[in-house]
Amino acid sequence: MNILWLQSGGCSGCTLSFMGLEEQDLLSWSNMLDLNWLWHPSLTENSAQETKTIVQKVLNNEISLDIFCLEGSVIMGPNGTGRFHMLSGFNMPAKELILQLSQKAGYVLAIGTCAAYGGITAAGNNLVEATGLQYDQNQFGSLLPKHFRSAMQLPVINISGCPVHPAWVAETIGLIALNQFTESSMDSVGRPLFYANKLVHHGCSRNEYYEYKASAQKPSDLGCMMENMGCVGTIAHADCNERGWHGNSSCTKGGYACIDCTSPDFGRVKHAYQSTPKIGNIPVGLPTDMPKAWFIALSTLSKSATPKRIKENAVQDHIVISPEIKQTKR
Fold this sequence. Notes:
alpha/beta, Rossmann fold, Cytochrome-c3 Hydrogenase, Chain A, domain 2, 2 domains, 5-stranded parallel beta sheet, 11 helices, 26% helix, elongated
């Protein structure tokens, strides 16, 4: 399969993450799937002129493009012209080439939240008019319209994350290579279901503290970070704590709250990520399928039943009370 990876408005963090693929090293994985990298900023050695020739052959239908990957947001400014991001050697805005390559590709992959929904690049006043490839935040229709379909009749596959998990990219491309990826493989905002049908909360090492509502009060505390520290792992769609990152770590394992970086709204929330917005002392990041009344009742009951060990460990940066060893009667 011929694959071309283009970078637009972003920080290259998704490429850096992808280079750390662990299940199999990146080159061996590429050889196993018989991937032919037409262009990638870190994997190919083509000169600028050679790359331009390859791209031109793709546009002229002399080379088939099976997979087109876009990393980073599409820069639409100023005033929709795209001239804030001109491509050296092509004498055109990057958005024009992105559009043309998308129309040639069998599959179109948005790599990371910036490419999928706008992400951090589109945060704040967004003076450069950054947007996702087919979504602008959670609204369908951007550079590519709502009805866009690739040559294989699929919308853009949004492998969101900031940065994207390397295995999410590898697994998506692997499923494509095996003809196992269809429109039913994606959720309602285009994310692959194999990771988007999970929650970051699943497998979190702090779940015992969550169950008893034993909350962290400050950075480095061991307790649950949902109530005070801004964690929204209970509503964030990703398998970070089941799949693990680079040596089986994750944000919550590292002591940092989940900030839902796979969400279409990432980068554009109206509160500090390190604090938990509350309405009537109730965190807004409740599980979406839990009524608020249930949470109040459960929280009150849980806190009243919290063992001393959990209550004290929750506000420490290390375990101060170990679980008791149960003595079995003989």
